[in-house]
UniProtKB/TrEMBL annotation, chain A:
NCBIfam families: CM_pl-yst (TIGR01802). The keyword Signal applies. Residues 1-27 form the signal peptide. This is Chorismate mutase domain-containing protein. It comes from Zizania palustris (Northern wild rice). The keyword Metal-binding does not apply. PROSITE patterns: CHORISMATE_MUT_3 (PS51169). One of its GO terms (biological process) is aromatic amino acid family biosynthetic process. It comes from the Eukaryota. GO terms for cellular component: cytoplasm. Keywords: Signal.
UniProtKB/TrEMBL annotation, chain B:
It comes from Zizania palustris (Northern wild rice). GO terms for cellular component: cytoplasm. This is Chorismate mutase. It catalyses: chorismate = prephenate. Its EC number is 5.4.99.5. One of its GO terms (molecular function) is chorismate mutase activity. Keywords: Amino-acid biosynthesis, Aromatic amino acid biosynthesis, Isomerase. Residues 130-247 form the Chorismate mutase domain. It is an enzyme of class 5 (isomerase).
Amino acid sequence: MLMPMASLYTYLLICNATLLLLHRCSGLSLDTVRDFLTREEDTIVFSIIERAKYPLNLPAYEVPAYFAGSRHDASFAELFVRDSEAVQTKAGRYQNQEEIPFFPFRVPFILSPSYNFTSDLYPAAAFVNLNDEIWSIYFNQFLSLLAKNGDDGNYAATAASDFLCLQALSKRINYGRYVAEVKFRGDPQNYTTLIRNKDKDALMKLLTSESQEDVVKRRVQKKAMVFGQNVTSNGPVETGDSNSSQASFKVDPSLVYKLYDQWVIPLTKQVEVEYLLHRLD
Amino acid sequence: MAEQLSLAAVRGALIREEDSIVFALIERARRPRNAPAYYAPAAGADDGQSLAEFFVREAEALHAKAGHYEKPEDVPFFPQDLPSPLFPTKGYPKVLHPFASSVSVNDAIWKMYFNELLPLFTVDGDDGYYAETVALDFACLKALSRRIHYGKYVAEVKFQDAPQDYSPLIHAKATDALMNLLTFKAVEEKVKKRVEKKARIFGQNVTLEDSADKNEGSADDSECKVNPKVLSELYDRWVMPLTKDVEVDYLLRRLD
């Protein structure tokens, strides 16, 4: 599909002008995006370490017998997250576009003082998110790798802790929208062509930098080691019976590597591709 | 709290709670002061509540329905009219005197957190993320309250260890003498240094390039997400004194 030269020229002129305008208005850049993602690693590692404080506590994830089949056919953990998000919604949490709730909740009014948030995302694509996948992976795949077997009865604290992990993962992965926006603005011609062709594979290839991904995975693994160590008052820090022992870290650093390698990074890129496919709507 | 009440178990719990407190403060420090979250009244709130108070009350009601306030170390900030648990809660071994659950210093913790601590470790500014801010405040408050109310277990262990020393003081309601008996300056210094060290280690910027021993933390405190001195000051001025207040309050009724 070739555009006549004159219209193509005009089109590119308008694109560049818009680009310049956008860059002046928003604070969004490759640097701010990278800074955010890097800082979010700490949040994710902290939240995982805190969840690992409790054993698996399976009863929190089963549907209570007296609820099964009723309208409230949800586990304790799900009900806790739904109610928590309702409170957060009332407090104005999901007003800016950065966070998307797992269970959107309508409220008659919001208590929070109003604030003029800038909107950096392309409106028709801002909805893109992978919360359903994140929920499923967290409870069905990740948790059993993270938490020791056992039941200490602290179901509320456990669910609260799950909620923090889910929020952090959701925020990081759905930030792919901002990553995609920045990349699009950096190379609109190239991306536009691929988007028009709905070429998912080529888009994924353009978005992927394996060397950068390797840096991220190794860094987050290192953070798990640093933040998960047992700090004592005197002498060198305890890292276990032997230098290679993983047992005394609060979280197995290789699990955190796996979290990013198998889930966080691939899902983020999936969000990026989905966002881009809607970027010209 | 562990089923076995022992000094080792209590110490272990206190040490682990330090990490939670440091993490919570680091996360809160990500946001600036965001003063409008603390203005009262928030638009539409009952009784002139701020957004922070509204959020904590609502979050605690949810926690209460979820059965969270059953243990002596889990104490709500707004205990009035809390709903009962909706789910059957797992029983836990009762190792403390029955009235332990009524000992609370949360009013003092609340005032300390908002009036004294927040200005020490958050930068001036307003980014509009008020809901996230108060949620982060709630996490800090919970961690601090838990640590401080562990004092109930500390007191019980110390009492069981030397009832002959504590009983006469309890009968005489000799608060100052009890406080002296509970205080071990050497231990407190060690705690302060350790929590400061944790702030240095957990609050540093971890990169792959550093060859320096990341276990010890960067030498420059100004790079830390929370100034380590804030942690030692927090423990010195408030956490340890309030914990001892809990211990004394608990002991005064231990023989009832």
